[in-house]
Amino acid sequence: MNYNKIQELDNSLTPSTLLCVQNLTVYYGAVLALEEASIKVNEGEIVAMIGPNGAGKSTCLRAIAGLLPHYDGRIAQGKIFLENRVINNMPPHELIKFGLALVPEGRHLFPSMSVQDNLEMGAYSLPKELKSMGVKERIEQIFALFPILKERRKQRSGTLSTGEQQMLAMGRGLMLKPKLLLLDEPSLGLSPNFMELIFEKLLEINKNGTSILLVEQNAQMALEVCHRAYVFEIGKIALEGEKEKLINDEKIKKVFLGG
Q1: Which is the CATH superfamily of the domain at 3-99+180-255?
Q2: Which has fewest Cβ within 10 Å: 49, 53, 69, 133?
Q3: What is the SS3 string spanning the chain?
Q4: pTM: predicted TM-score of the whole model, two decimal places
């Protein structure tokens, strides 16, 4: 199914649809950054957005996460549904209540604070009704997922390696116990070993019940872990489909997979 050509996407919302972006067009000032992009994430899926720099992947993610105003961007057309709720221009702190969390590009940790303090800050914006889950218990769950963070729990986050900082950023996002985790370039700046470990953890996070929408320049790694992917080119979605279809596509092989 080509979601970019569907005219009545409202009718395609099903009980398993977690996120549905319909014909999204975004401008930064007078500059068109994204044109009529449509994507879906169903419950239990890992969905990747791949493509070159400036193709519109991060713009799409910012629109979903409510961050466009911070970049002087605006939605000119389209709707974003989180489950059956329109979330266009909803601020990030409101989106948390509905189960959405973002791990931003560059991690944006508090470098002078300890690993544990950074995790606790991840739960700071939780609504009161969700804090009943127990912050300490949630931290222990994060430590079970990333054992190295438990060893570093009293260490300042600014002194961690880049890979450890990425784990901490992901752990902080998971403190919110999201239904949908958004990740922007999680492999950026990582060594091959840490890159492989991070993607292994994405599979584990997904297996534990969290759906994932991933922006990633490393197309090969992204296609290995995702269920479906969207290929962005110059502000548009050029291709989409299940990973097996894309891995075997001749253009994808040539442009992204070195084939």
Answers
A1: P-loop containing nucleotide triphosphate hydrolases (3.40.50.300)
A2: 53
A3: CCHHHCCCHHHHCCCCEEEEEEEEEEEECCEEEEEEEEEEEECCCEEEEECCCCCCHHHHHHHHHCCHHHHCEEEEEEEEEECCEECCCCCHHHHHHHCEEEECCCCCCCCCCEHHHHHHHHCCCCCHHHHCCCHHHHHHHHHHHCHHHHHCCCCEHHHCCHHHHHHHHHHHHHCCCCCEEEEECCCCCCCHHHHHHHHHHHHHHHHCCCEEEEECCCHHHHHHHCCEEEEEECCEEEEEEEHHHHHCCHHHHHHCCCC
A4: 0.88
